Amino acid sequence: MALTVVFALLGSLVLSLTVVPALASLVLARRGGRREPLVLRLAERIYDPLLRLALRQRGAVVGLALAILLLTVMAARGFGSVFVPRLSEGGIVVNIVRLAGTDLAESVRYNTQMERALLAAFPAEIARVWSRI
Predict the structure, then answer these.
(1) 3-state secondary structure the chain
(2) pTM, 2 dp
(3) What is the pLDDT of residues 107-120, one digit of tens each?
């Protein structure tokens, strides 16, 4: 299923980058001497002076961008944990894959040792540990 979605997305990307512009150039009529819309003209009037100023003051622009990046990183440090609910279930299930020839008694011994190590390392977070063989 995942491969089908990936192939569909790649196919649509290829189609949108090749066929659609070619068909648009054939279907859409070309008009000579057409004026640009008012919104675009206003945007260019504002954008051109700002672009020229930014090109003259490159160091200030780079410094401002780095400062904004630094502030954003500092502000977003804790965002990931805000949206994840805290699950205080106190249990953990561990599945360890071993070689096929490992003895059952040895697997039980290793699992018990691993369970004790987890309980000792994280006593506040883990109340019970289950392991599978």
Answers:
(1) CHHHHHHHHHHHHHHHHHHHHHHHHHHCCCCCCCCCCHHHHHHHHHHHHHHHHHHHCHHHHHHHHHHHHHHHHHHCCCHHHHCCCCCCCCEEEEECCCCCCCCHHHHHHHHHHHHHHHHHHCCCCCCEEEEEC
(2) 0.36
(3) 889 888 988 998 89
Closest CA to 133 of 116, 117, 111: 111
Residue 39 and residue 62: Cα distance in Å, rounded? 29
Residues 98-129 as b or e (16 or more Cβ within 10 Å = b): eeeeeeeeeeeeebeeebeebeeeeeeebeeb
Tokens of 37: 């819309």
Residue at token pair 């675009």: 40
| Residues 6+ away with beta carbon under 8 Å from 126 | 90, 91, 92, 118, 119
What's the chain's average pLDDT?
Answer: 85
Residue 42 has pLDDT above 80, yes or no: yes
User: Which tokens go with 84?
Assistant: 């994840």
